[in-house]
């Protein structure tokens, strides 16, 4: 069953059409990959889903309810969350303060309990709770950004380029982490340039081309397809 359905979504920035009749479905409990070239409209689509950008046409349905007209806070309360491109942690705030910001919509008791649970999933952060977020490594900042997004206990986590700027060893660790998060019951929609990596954890894949979404073959079939590997994985 689809937890999220995007139907005929169009977004214009003045004369620029960022999304053109884009449609996709994300099934509950799955990892869905969204790939595409820079400027294809991937970030715009995530912003529209979370409510940061209002579409000019189309509909967004979450858990069977039309959320197209809802603001971001209302969507978060229903179970949507976004881990943005570039991490966007609060650099002068401590790790603990960043996490509490992610739980701003929760009662205080739940914030403490949720932090304790997430620190078991992100043990590196546990030793750095009082450390300023801006002094963390790139990988640690990404773990913090993900943990902060998980503070509100989302049913669907939108992730925008989570491996951007990470060292190769951190990239491999990240995909393992996303697999563990998915195993805990969090549905994921992941925008990612590391196509091989995201296909290793995805159940289905969409490509966004010139503002339009196209559902592709199953990930394992794509990785066997020579033309796909040449185009998307830069293999000769």
TrEMBL record:
GO molecular function (one): branched-chain amino acid transmembrane transporter activity
Swiss-Prot/TrEMBL keywords: Amino-acid transport, ATP-binding, Nucleotide-binding, Transport
Domain ABC transporter: from-to ranges: 4-235
One Pfam family in the UniProt entry: ABC_tran
A single GO BP: L-amino acid transport
SMART domains: AAA
SUPFAM superfamilies: P-loop containing nucleoside triphosphate hydrolases
Family: Belongs to the ABC transporter superfamily.
Annotated protein name in UniProt: ABC transporter ATP-binding protein
Highest classification ranks of the organism: Bacteria, Bacillati, Bacillota, Clostridia, Eubacteriales
């Amino acid at each position: 069953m689809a937890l999220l359905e995007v139907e005929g979504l169009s977004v214009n920035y003045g004369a620029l059409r960022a999304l053109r009749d884009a449609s996709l479905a994300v099934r509950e409990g799955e990892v869905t990959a969204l790939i595409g070239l820079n400027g294809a409209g991937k970030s715009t689509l995530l912003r529209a889903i979370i409510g940061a950008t209002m579409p000019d046409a189309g509909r967004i349905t979450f858990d069977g309810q039309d959320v197209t007209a809802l603001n971001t806070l209302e969507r978060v309360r229903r179970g949507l969350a976004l881990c943005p491109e570039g991490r966007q942690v609060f650099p002068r705030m401590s790790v603990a303060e960043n996490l509490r910001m992610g739980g701003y919509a929760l009662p205080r008791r739940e914030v403490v309990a949720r932090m304790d649970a997430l620190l078991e999933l992100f043990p590196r952060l546990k030793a750095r709770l009082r450390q300023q977020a801006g002094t963390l490594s790139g990988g640690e900042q990404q773990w913090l950004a993900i943990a902060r997004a998980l503070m509100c206990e989302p049913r669907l986590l939108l992730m925008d380029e989570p491996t951007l700027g990470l060292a190769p060893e951190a990239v491999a660790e990240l995909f393992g982490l996303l697999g563990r998060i998915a195993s805990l019951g969090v549905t994921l929609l992941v925008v990612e340039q590391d196509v091989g990596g995201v296909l290793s954890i995805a159940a289905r894949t969409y490509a966004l081309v010139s503002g339009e979404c196209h559902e592709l073959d199953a990930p394992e079939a794509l990785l066997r397809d020579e033309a796909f590997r040449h185009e998307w994985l830069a293999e000769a």
